[in-house]
Amino acid sequence: MSDFQIAITSLAGLASLLRRSLSYVSCVFLFPSAILTLSLTKFFASMNRKTDFLVVGSGIGGLSFALKVADYGKVILITKSALDDTNTAYAQGGIAAVTYSPDNTEKHVNDTLICGAGLCNEEVVRMVVTEAPEQIKELIRWGAKFDRNPDGQYDLAKEGGHSEHRILHHKDNTGAEIERALIRQVKANKNIEILENFFALELLTQHPLG
Ligand SMILES: Cc1cc2nc3c(=O)[nH]c(=O)nc-3n(C[C@H](O)[C@H](O)[C@H](O)COP(=O)(O)OP(=O)(O)OC[C@H]3O[C@@H](n4cnc5c(N)ncnc54)[C@H](O)[C@@H]3O)c2cc1C
Prior knowledge:
Elements: E1 2-8, H1 12-20, E2 25-29, H2 40-45, E3 48-51, E4 53-56, H3 60-69, E5 75-79, H4 87-90, E6 95-96, H5 105-115, H6 122-141, E7 167-168, H7 174-188, E8 192-196, E9 198-203
Parallel strand pairs: 1-2, 4-5, 5-8
Antiparallel strand pairs: 1-3, 2-9, 6-7
Helix pairs in contact: 3-7, 5-6
Bound molecules: flavin-adenine dinucleotide.
């Protein structure tokens, strides 16, 4: 289990003291007036924490990672503002993935490389495009709903750069729907503790990079 510690913005001396003694991750506890009444005992008790996984961020990346690793240990998920205040919740159009023929992985890879105008790393494009259908299935298992046609098939949109219909969407608020489903799962998971209004400042690793 790793330690992380929490510093408080409005007590500059305490914050710098804590920052100097950090072991893994330094966070600033933002201090909205509504939380000023938090008892000092409770606050100080929460300054030194141990967890198996510390996840920073509550968008699709952070929430889905937290759900995956919660099977292997305790997770603390911090986010700098409210849980659902993320870019994910604002995303509208939808998510691209190969779900039906005549679409296939090679077409999706080619479309992406063409749009990337030579700037894409093909290996990464291939990995993302190949894994996308399984990741979509996982979102659906977690409760995210995507619109379907009357015949039951997904109502796939076709956006710029795509040669096939492959955009899954939920009305015009796909991101909000994904955020809703993931937050529901995360809140129901006993291995995940959520800390809102906590700001990660710096990540100290055990070994120097490079
Ligand atoms: C208006 C809009 C429309 C979009 N439409 C689409 C679309 O149609 N299709 C598509 O695929 N993509 C779309 N995107 C892009 C998509 O939303 C993002 O790529 C995706 O949501 C990123 O997810 P994420 O989990 O990586 O980050 P985010 O959802 O941005 O989450 C980041 C999280 O990290 C937290 N955080 C950041 N810094 C700190 C810190 N220092 N300490 C603590 N917490 C921190 C934030 O509070 C937040 O919880 C759109 C984006 C926007 C804004």
